[in-house]
Amino acid sequence: MRILIKNGRVIDPATKKDGRYDILIENETIIKVEPNLMDEADNVIDAEGLFVMPGFIDLHVHLREPGFEYKETIETGAKAAARGGYTTICPMPNTNPCIDSKEMVEFLMKKEKEESIVHIVPVGAVTDGQKGIKLADIKGMKQAGAKALSEDGKSVMDTSLYFQGMKLAAGEDMVILAHCEDKHLVGNGVLNQGKKAEELCLEGISNAVEDIIAARDIFLAKASGVKLHLCHCSTEDSVRLVKMAKEMGLLVSAEVCPHHFTLTEDDIFEDDSNYKMNPPLRTKTDREALKIGLRDGIMDVIATDHAPHSLEEKEKSIKDAPFGIVGLETAFALTMSELVKGGYLTPYEMVEKMSYNPARILGINKGSLAVGKMADITIADPDRTYVIDSSQFASKGKNTPFHNREVTGKVVMTMVSGTVVYKEGQNLI
Ligand SMILES: NC(=O)N[C@@H](CC(=O)O)C(=O)O
Ligand SMILES: [Zn+2]
Ligand SMILES: [Zn+2]
């Protein structure tokens, strides 16, 4: 089987390409990337006017399986990923049971083979059951295929235990994906501490809740030598801390989520829990610092923190609903609309943050359109304007504050290992 993608704007930081090239794929593999290919193919895709990019890689999603299949399953989460242009996703281990053992990583990898239309890179918990009491079987999880460790949903508050875990992770060459939140300082906060929380008579979450743990984790990374990646950064001081860590020569990277670079607490007009996520929407000052951080290359990655919940759960008030919003099917459009059209990122830099850098941080052989690589490819129309409609999501989760928002930039095709898994206007395979 040969597929020829013609006339597209190929954007591939791995090979430093940004220009008009054709791509020839044979079975699972890219075999030629050159201008004006005339080779015979079984399927010719005309990508005139479209971006042709290495498939997006999401370092941060929640698939909810096992345990919370009513919110999302591996199958539905993978379909949402494909629709969003993602060819590889990293599900966080906060499931029930939690992904904290060799057997659970094996379970996930078996599920990937049987039920997922995109690649899955397993992330193991740092501690047993994410309880924060004793370390999980880090070596065993690595042997089974886990590439990263995370306690996402919370922080490991026992600094000594975390330090031990980091040293083990460093020895296994696993990256730590850190959720930074001081459990004691956060109290019962639900929205950013400030005027919106006051207006709605809700408890606030200060920036310090994040900043204190981000600073602690950076110094733990320095002491342990581990590769540290900060999840869902939301504050201006997180950006400052990441800049400092990089200046110190540490192996520190960081992600920003589309909701944090698009919205602020000022966008919350009523008690609508689709605006409730952890960390919370912050102020304009924080949002601008995140955008400048992305622009200046301090923040390396755009990740979704796709966190599906059921309609019943999210119909509750901000005080009572769970934290989290879906993101896989809106991330590209929001990135194009806010950062590329907004003048913060070039398309090339966007691809660095959505594919090339995530691959590099995980240490996986992806995020590249070089000859010989697996054909994981995303094709998108950068100029298409449309209105987001959550009822069209492949995800079970419809919990988004972006329903009815007009955006520009649409994924039209996603290819995983040489197979088209999503094509606009057609049902998902
Ligand atoms: N981000 C969220 O608001 N929620 C996440 C947990 C997390 O990412 O911390 C979830 O699992 O629902
Ligand atoms: Zn988190
Ligand atoms: Zn998360």
UniProtKB/TrEMBL annotation:
<feature type="binding site">
    <location>
        <position position="152"/>
    </location>
    <ligand>
        <name>Zn(2+) 2</name>
    </ligand>
</feature>
<dbReference type="InterPro" id="IPR002195">
    <property type="entry name" value="Dihydroorotase_CS"/>
</dbReference>
<feature type="binding site">
    <location>
        <position position="152"/>
    </location>
    <ligand>
        <name>Zn(2+) 1</name>
    </ligand>
</feature>
<dbReference type="Pfam" id="PF12890">
    <property type="entry name" value="DHOase"/>
</dbReference>
<feature type="domain" description="Amidohydrolase 3">
    <location>
        <begin position="337"/>
        <end position="422"/>
    </location>
</feature>
<dbReference type="InterPro" id="IPR011059">
    <property type="entry name" value="Metal-dep_hydrolase_composite"/>
</dbReference>
<comment type="similarity">
    <text>Belongs to the metallo-dependent hydrolases superfamily. DHOase family. Class I DHOase subfamily.</text>
</comment>
<comment type="function">
    <text>Catalyzes the reversible cyclization of carbamoyl aspartate to dihydroorotate.</text>
</comment>
<feature type="binding site">
    <location>
        <position position="309"/>
    </location>
    <ligand>
        <name>substrate</name>
    </ligand>
</feature>
<keyword id="KW-0665">Pyrimidine biosynthesis</keyword>
<comment type="pathway">
    <text>Pyrimidine metabolism; UMP biosynthesis via de novo pathway; (S)-dihydroorotate from bicarbonate: step 3/3.</text>
</comment>
<dbReference type="GO" id="GO:0005737">
    <property type="term" value="C:cytoplasm"/>
</dbReference>
<keyword id="KW-0862">Zinc</keyword>
<feature type="binding site">
    <location>
        <begin position="62"/>
        <end position="64"/>
    </location>
    <ligand>
        <name>substrate</name>
    </ligand>
</feature>
<dbReference type="InterPro" id="IPR032466">
    <property type="entry name" value="Metal_Hydrolase"/>
</dbReference>
<feature type="binding site">
    <location>
        <position position="278"/>
    </location>
    <ligand>
        <name>substrate</name>
    </ligand>
</feature>
<dbReference type="InterPro" id="IPR013108">
    <property type="entry name" value="Amidohydro_3"/>
</dbReference>
<dbReference type="GO" id="GO:0004151">
    <property type="term" value="F:dihydroorotase activity"/>
</dbReference>
<dbReference type="GO" id="GO:0004038">
    <property type="term" value="F:allantoinase activity"/>
</dbReference>
<dbReference type="GO" id="GO:0006145">
    <property type="term" value="P:purine nucleobase catabolic process"/>
</dbReference>
<feature type="binding site">
    <location>
        <begin position="323"/>
        <end position="324"/>
    </location>
    <ligand>
        <name>substrate</name>
    </ligand>
</feature>
<feature type="binding site">
    <location>
        <position position="60"/>
    </location>
    <ligand>
        <name>Zn(2+) 1</name>
    </ligand>
</feature>
<dbReference type="GO" id="GO:0044205">
    <property type="term" value="P:'de novo' UMP biosynthetic process"/>
</dbReference>
<feature type="binding site">
    <location>
        <position position="62"/>
    </location>
    <ligand>
        <name>Zn(2+) 1</name>
    </ligand>
</feature>
<dbReference type="Pfam" id="PF07969">
    <property type="entry name" value="Amidohydro_3"/>
</dbReference>
<dbReference type="InterPro" id="IPR050138">
    <property type="entry name" value="DHOase/Allantoinase_Hydrolase"/>
</dbReference>
<feature type="domain" description="Dihydroorotase catalytic">
    <location>
        <begin position="51"/>
        <end position="237"/>
    </location>
</feature>
<dbReference type="GO" id="GO:0008270">
    <property type="term" value="F:zinc ion binding"/>
</dbReference>
<protein>
    <recommendedName>
        <fullName>Dihydroorotase</fullName>
        <ecNumber>3.5.2.3</ecNumber>
    </recommendedName>
</protein>
<keyword id="KW-0378">Hydrolase</keyword>
<feature type="binding site">
    <location>
        <position position="179"/>
    </location>
    <ligand>
        <name>Zn(2+) 2</name>
    </ligand>
</feature>
<dbReference type="InterPro" id="IPR004722">
    <property type="entry name" value="DHOase"/>
</dbReference>
<feature type="binding site">
    <location>
        <position position="305"/>
    </location>
    <ligand>
        <name>Zn(2+) 1</name>
    </ligand>
</feature>
<feature type="active site">
    <location>
        <position position="305"/>
    </location>
</feature>
<feature type="binding site">
    <location>
        <position position="94"/>
    </location>
    <ligand>
        <name>substrate</name>
    </ligand>
</feature>
<keyword id="KW-0479">Metal-binding</keyword>
<dbReference type="InterPro" id="IPR024403">
    <property type="entry name" value="DHOase_cat"/>
</dbReference>
<feature type="binding site">
    <location>
        <position position="232"/>
    </location>
    <ligand>
        <name>Zn(2+) 2</name>
    </ligand>
</feature>
